[in-house]
Every structure is written in structure tokens, then in C-alpha cells.
Write a structure and sequence with these properties.
The chain is α+β, with helices and mostly antiparallel strands. The protein has three helices and six strands. The protein has helices spanning 14-27, 42-48, 90-102; strands at 3-7, 34-38, 55-58, 61-62, 78-80, 83-85. The strands form two sheets. It has a four-stranded mixed beta sheet with strand order 2-1-3-4, with helices on one face. It has a two-stranded antiparallel ribbon with strand order 5-6. It is globular and about 35 Å long.
């Protein structure tokens, strides 16, 4: 399984997302490495179809995919049970990981 976390330098939430992702994977007993990818400019953002920082992909599929035409260095927010946050919760990640594994 290919697991990626994409971010840009200056994003205040990517490290929390990485820690939550590590926790979720551990709870799901998935021990594949996480590839951390820094997006450095809008050209790379477009090439990677970067939906904002932080973004998490499994086997190339964004866990919170949205159709978009323009990609740039931007922050991303997630609707959690505690309100809008800069990173998904462990529970949200576990649910998406379970769906990705069973697909």
C-alpha cells in the first residue's frame, strides 16, 4: 500500500495530520511506510493535483477527493465532530483507511 502525506512548508497543520495518520495506521495494524511529500510551488501542486495542505493519499487516491481545475499552495480544512480543523481526526482517518483497504 502506498501512503502519502502532501504538505507545503508553512502549513500549521501538516504535522498534526502526520501524527494522526500514524496513529490511525497503527490502530488498523497497517505498517506500510508513509511518504511525506513537500509541495514547493504551484507547478508541482498542479502536477500532483494537490488539494491543499495537508492531503493524504492511499495508492494515489486522495482520501477526501474533490474535483478541481486549479491547484495551488493552500491550506485545507476538514469538518470534524469538533468543528472545522486543519487536519482530520484519527477516527476520520481510520474510517477512510478502512474504506480504501476494502475497495
Amino acid at each position: 500500500m502506498k501512503i502519502e502525506l502532501l504538505y507545503f512548508d508553512g502549513c500549521p497543520s501538516w504535522q498534526a495530520a502526520l501524527e494522526n495518520l500514524k496513529s490511525a495506521l497503527q490502530e488498523e495494524r497497517i505498517f506500510d511506510p508513509i511518504q511525506v511529500i513537500e509541495i514547493v510551488n504551484n507547478e508541482q501542486a498542479s502536477q500532483e493535483k494537490f488539494l491543499g495542505s495537508p492531503s493524504i493519499r492511499i495508492d494515489g487516491q486522495d482520501l477526501w477527493f474533490e474535483q478541481r481545475e486549479n491547484y495551488s499552495l493552500s491550506c485545507r480544512v476538514y469538518a470534524t465532530s469538533e468543528g472545522v480543523k486543519g487536519s482530520p481526526t484519527v477516527e476520520m482517518l481510520r474510517s477512510k483507511i478502512q474504506s480504501a483497504v476494502s475497495a
